[in-house]
Amino acid sequence: MAANVRPPYPSDPPGEDPPIESIVQAEFASRTRRWGNEKLCKLLRITAEAARDLELQTIWPPAVAREAGRPRKAYLVAVRTSISDS
User: How many CA atoms lie within 13 A of 25 on its CB side?
Assistant: First the structure.
């Protein structure tokens, strides 16, 4: 999946690359998220089957997220709006 990453990951020749988990956590911890799951899945060509086979925990296509019981974005926005209004 990382074939088109610039700079290449893992680096060539092999270096001291940070673990993928720390890269993903750092991106998701930032206040402004530039990359949503749908965009990442398209860029990395992650299909529902690949997400299941690789047992991904963070980047899920919408179908896999629904199977796992993740709430939809519209629901989360409604909840946040109702909380901020109160």
Answer: 5
Q: Is 72 left (phi over 0), alpha (psi -120 to 50) or beta?
A: beta
**What are the helix (H) ranges across 14-61?**
20-29, 37-44, 48-53
Measured CA distances, 7 to 4, 10, 11, 27, 32 (Å): 9, 9, 7, 17, 22
19-70 confidence digits (pLDDT tens): 888 877 877 777 666 778 888 899 889 999 999 999 888 888 888 888 877 7
Number of C-alpha atoms within 13 angstroms, CB side, residue 65?
A: 14
What pTM, to 2 d.p., does this model score? Answer: 0.44
